[in-house]
Design a protein that fits this description.
Layout: H1 2-19, H2 29-36, H3 38-41, H4 65-68, H5 75-83, H6 99-109, H7 117-134
Helix pairs in contact: 2-7, 5-7, 6-7
């Protein structure tokens, strides 16, 4: 089973490395989501992406985050989860990529030049958070 996880992770990273640079426009949440998240969470964010079956735990249905949080979209928690650099030991192992680290690598390899690396990371993550906020189902 560990081999399948490693193969899935390698396939995800290979797939995303070619797509991730495509959303250079600030506020391009849908493109960020399609390039980074849809492979596991599905295009609509329901946890039904093409790689979902390869994971040990099914990906979250991202359309139900507000419902699961009493009707309020948990933006700060979503930001921290996407970033991933601030590990929460009690949550156990993480299958989701640590996008904050991946975005820093992307920034360093590019000639984007939009301010400092942390601004670049926050901007890209915020685009995803805004997109996820728009995907929420009504309670």
């Amino acid at each position: 089973m560990k081999i399948y996880r490693r193969v899935a992770a390698l396939a995800i990273m290979t797939t995303l490395s070619g797509i991730a640079g495509g959303a250079e426009i600030i506020g391009a949440g849908p493109a960020e989501f399609e390039g980074r998240c849809a492979v596991c969470h599905g295009l609509q964010g329901r946890g039904d992406g093409p790689f979902a079956a390869l994971l040990l735990r099914p990906p979250a249905d991202l359309t139900r985050l507000a419902i699961a949080n009493g009707g309020s979209f948990p933006a700060q928690r979503v930001r921290r989860t996407i970033d991933g650099r601030e590990a929460v030991a009690s949550h156990g192992p993480r299958e989701m990529p640590i996008w904050g680290r991946e975005l820093l690598v992307e920034y360093r390899r590019s000639s984007v030049g939009i301010g400092d690396p942390e601004t670049y990371v926050r901007t890209r993550i915020e685009a995803l958070v805004d997109h996820l906020r728009g995907l929420q189902q009504a309670p």
